Write a sequence for this structure.
């Protein structure tokens, strides 16, 4: 497949060398198109040596071959890594002042952009607006990872690892090949004609959830014991939030029901705290949904009674007013099984597609995957995402490792270790096949 690797002028440009090597070793024909600023970080000889092709930043080199048009027209995939704030702004506003921005305007294939910049630049409303614009046009924007940045800075804005970006590229190329084959079979023509360029982009780009309504739950529930204490778990909500963001980027109308703070563009957020609140919100939102994803870590139990005032360390017992400093006994009751209820309320209807999550630990009765397969059979959902949890595993981390199971299929999809954004895309890839 023909891949254009765009490289913008950021310190993370060095990671693109590894991505280039992964793509070429997989047999892809890769043309590197850096910006002039990118050559300050990695020189043209390096790109030429790794790709086996000459490198240029302007539209005047080999002008007789019209590279500013030809490269975009002939590409099966354009990936930009890193995509700086400047490059995102130019792409969103349609500027074309160098070879890379011209390629982005002429490309009619899937486009992947991997932003990398300091946290303040990534969080700026202008950058977020540009990302939203690009996503609406079908560009797959890979959210940056969180971690060490230039100097002593740390936070969101780090370029994902080359292996993760390579996996995204391979998925986009596979989708492109599938969509092209389908279009050719039904229309009897190649998929490169200008007449169906927009349809092709929608089918194989990030618009594969366009027109779909998606509901995602996220975060751990908090079951109040008294005004200051609660029973809860370690879930941060990051995986559920990543699933919601990925669905929105792929064109879906998304409702996120979460217990964690969330500020996601193009996502309707419903904030809850307890399992009972989550239950009500999910049933209401799922009524007209195409896909429901239960990624929340719902507490299995809640206190049977709520103390209206703080439970004291010592408390009076008996008629004589004697004090007891022993720990009180907390009676628990079982919370509803929201996933099972959603499956039951769907009945025989094929909609919505229901995705469950199984946060498991292995024990003497079976492995994590054993417990996951048993849960898939027991719950009756269409897809189950199984991951191993525990201290230092999954909860609160930026990375995840999961196995995606489908009801009625012995096959599974292994994902990771990868960022939760990459895991989200892998889950949606499976869901799209069911849609």
């Amino acid at each position: 497949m023909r891949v254009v690797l765009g490289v913008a002028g950021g310190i993370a440009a060095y990671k693109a060398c590894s991505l280039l090597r992964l793509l070429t070793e997989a047999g892809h024909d890769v043309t590197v198109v850096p910006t002039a600023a990118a050559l300050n970080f990695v020189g043209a000889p390096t790109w030429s040596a790794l790709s086996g092709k000459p490198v240029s930043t302007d539209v005047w080199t080999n002008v007789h071959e019209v590279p500013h048009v030809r490269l975009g027209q002939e590409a099966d995939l354009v990936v930009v890594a890193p995509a700086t704030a400047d490059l995102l702004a130019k792409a969103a506003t349609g500027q074309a002042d160098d070879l890379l921005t011209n390629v982005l305007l002429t490309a009619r294939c899937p486009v992947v952009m991997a932003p990398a910049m300091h946290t303040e630049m990534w969080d700026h409303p202008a950058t977020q607006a540009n990302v939203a614009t690009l996503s609406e046009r079908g560009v797959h924007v890979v959210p940056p990872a969180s971690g060490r940045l230039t100097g002593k800075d740390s936070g969101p804005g780090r370029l994902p690892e080359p292996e993760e970006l390579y996996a995204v590229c391979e998925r986009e190329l596979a989708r492109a090949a599938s969509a092209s084959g389908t279009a050719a079979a039904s229309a009897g023509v190649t998929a490169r004609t200008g007449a169906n360029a927009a349809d092709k982009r929608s089918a194989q780009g990030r618009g594969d959830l366009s027109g779909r309504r998606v509901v995602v739950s996220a975060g751990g529930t908090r079951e109040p014991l008294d005004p200051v204490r609660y029973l809860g778990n370690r879930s941060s909500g990051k995986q559920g939030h990543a699933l919601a963001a990925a669905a929105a980027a792929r064109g879906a109308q998304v409702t996120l029901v979460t217990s964690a703070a969330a500020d996601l563009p193009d996502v309707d957020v419903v904030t809850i705290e307890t399992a009972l609140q989550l239950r009500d919100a999910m049933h209401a939102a799922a009524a007209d949904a195409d896909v429901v994803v239960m990624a929340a870590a719902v507490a299995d139990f809640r206190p049977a009674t709520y103390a209206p005032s703080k439970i004291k360390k010592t408390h009076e017992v008996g008629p004589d007013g004697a004090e007891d400093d022993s720990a009180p006994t907390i009676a628990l009751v079982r919370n509803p099984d929201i996933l099972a209820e959603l499956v039951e309320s769907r009945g025989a209807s094929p909609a919505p597609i229901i995705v469950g999550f199984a946060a498991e630990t292995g024990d003497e009765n079976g492995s994590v995957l054993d417990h996951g397969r048993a849960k898939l059979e027991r719950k009756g959902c269409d897809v189950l995402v199984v991951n191993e949890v525990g201290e230092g595993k999954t909860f609160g981390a930026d990375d995840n490792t999961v196995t995606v199971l489908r009801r009625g299929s012995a096959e599974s999809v292994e994902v990771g270790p990868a960022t939760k954004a990459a895991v989200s895309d892998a889950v949606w890839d499976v869901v799209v096949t069911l849609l």
